Amino acid sequence: MTSLGVGDRGPAGLNQVLIVGGGPAGMMTGLLLARAGVTVKVLEKHADFFRDFRGDTVHPSTMEILDQLGMLERFLRRPHDRLDSARIRIAGREWAIGDLSHLDTAAPFIAMMPQWEFLDFLRDEAAAFPGFSLAMEQPVAGLVEEGKRIVGVRLADGTEERASQLVIAADGRASLARSLGLLTVETFGAPMDVFWFRLPRTSQGGDALRGSIENKRMVVLIGRDTYWQTAYLIPKGEAETTRARGMGWLRSEVQKAFPDLDLSNDVLKSPEELHLLTVAVDRLVEWHRPGLLAIGDAAHAMSPIGGIGINLAIQDAVAAANILSRPLARKAPVDHLLDKVQERRLLPTRMIQAAQIAAQNRVIGRVLGEEGPIVRAPLIVRLLDRCALLRRIPGRFIGLGIRRERVRSPNAFV
Ligand SMILES: Cc1cc2nc3c(=O)[nH]c(=O)nc-3n(C[C@H](O)[C@H](O)[C@H](O)COP(=O)(O)OP(=O)(O)OC[C@H]3O[C@@H](n4cnc5c(N)ncnc54)[C@H](O)[C@@H]3O)c2cc1C
Known about the structure:
Blueprint: E1 15-20, H1 24-35, E2 40-43, E3 57-58, H2 60-68, H3 72-76, E4 81-83, E5 85-90, E6 93-99, E7 110-112, H4 115-126, E8 132-135, E9 140-146, E10 149-155, E11 160-169, H5 176-179, E12 185-187, E13 192-200, E14 209-214, E15 217-223, E16 227-235, H6 239-244, H7 247-257, E17 275-277, E18 282-284, E19 288-289, E20 292-294, H8 309-329, H9 338-369, H10 379-386, H11 392-400
Helix pairs in contact: 1-4, 1-8, 8-9
The site of flavin-adenine dinucleotide has 35 residues, from helix 1 and helix 8.
């Protein structure tokens, strides 16, 4: 049998690992495996990374990883806003609810960076490793199974591509591994959906992230250079009822939430401007089967609360590379190690989803169902606002997460 050298794809150009999906989970896993000397190909169905209305929050836990990889400085050269505290507007006033500035980590703030910028960055960094390749506009239509083992993928044009060791499903919450019934999903539900749209941002100062909670209305603004990426929460399944109220109604709702915004009749004119995100919280029962491992949203769809999805996907990628990269680099079988990845990442996923579900049910579900005006902020919000020390707790939970990963996979090129 021919032994492949570092970055050498072998006679038939066979990759050791195929990754379905070039989101944060797939790109980071591809980068780390290639860095460890594994030949890996990421297959992404879109022609570019430019997809609006996706996660924008790169947390300290992710930047810690970039720091360990020696990439943080280059990352921070890309356009971003910094956020080291969180405030929310409830019952007509702003409340301070989180503080990240005291975290003992390389970058104690949230970098607000459009996801396409982050993915472009990962692609450029991964390109330094010869074993890495990325195929854009390459939708995967199916998985190839042989003797109860997944051995490759079937592309949209009907051709097959094989992986000598592993296929990773990093294709998000509508993953093929789910739709083909290869891995079973457990769903936990959510009381809300979200309309995303853009609003003009006329001044660059102030917070890059703003939130407002009033009766039956929750709005979040995420600052981009010339516009606000805006999330307007609606009760689950009420997209059509909300659309039917008209754009003027929606404009005035947002204006009431943020009186300082300059919303003339020229903005938010057409229902076409509204992008619906159906919120889901779920998790696979088993994240793997022989030859196949699911990570990121494919393994666990997260609620948008806390902006944790990207960061959890990155942590999954690091854990997977820590556990699998050495045996993969030796061309050793890894099927028996796949459960270790799930075991490692299940606890943080469970705990974060439990916190999100509690927030959804206790706060969001109630606010969206509330008839009368909200006259008081909840006790926890008042306590956080009053006590600076207490604000470090949510800052730590959101910024660094639980069981944070450290890069232990090797760099085969130093
Ligand atoms: C509107 C919105 C706002 C969000 N806001 C935040 C936020 O502020 N902060 C945060 O941390 N998270 C946020 N999230 C969640 C975050 O975007 C996801 O948790 C994160 O992107 C998950 O990464 P992933 O790589 O696992 O999956 P994804 O990012 O979903 O990436 C999957 C990739 O696979 C590709 N793909 C899918 N099917 C195929 C196929 N068959 N063949 C080839 N390629 C395929 C997709 O095109 C995509 O590029 C938000 C999500 C949405 C939808």
